[in-house]
Amino acid sequence: MTTADQDPSELIRQLKESFQQIKLGGGFVGKTSRVALALVAIWTVVIFRLSDNYILDAIIIFAAGIITAFSFWWINKTEAFVQNNPSIALLEGAQFLEYQKFEAQMKGVLSSPQTKPIVDPSLPAISSSALENDDSK
């Protein structure tokens, strides 16, 4: 089987297996890297899918071009957001909430939670309601 006759889904499966071990971080760089890897995969499929049918080739190249243009637009808009909001862009989800809580504690707006230390961390924590029920015996 030649590469021009190869099924695109098989090629995508092979690319997925090849790039499965790559671990990308969160935030802007990680998201942009995923977009770049997706573009490489799309253009690899396009190159291997080219044939003697010029109309089909033109349609495939046009579709890949639209995806590429959208990706560049997305990356540029995301980069502008990163420049305006660097702390938000570099952190995700719970990390961002923890960062905001940390900032509020440093400014004195939010007090840090006061919890009693557990004597042995391997033992489960006892709630105060359990202690009250135990005292009533």
Automatic annotation (TrEMBL):
Superkingdom assignment: Bacteria
Alphabetic keyword roster: Membrane, Transmembrane, Transmembrane helix
Transmembrane segments: 28-48, 54-75
Region called Disordered, residue ranges: 111-137
Entry keyword annotation includes Transmembrane: yes
Stated name of the protein: Uncharacterized protein
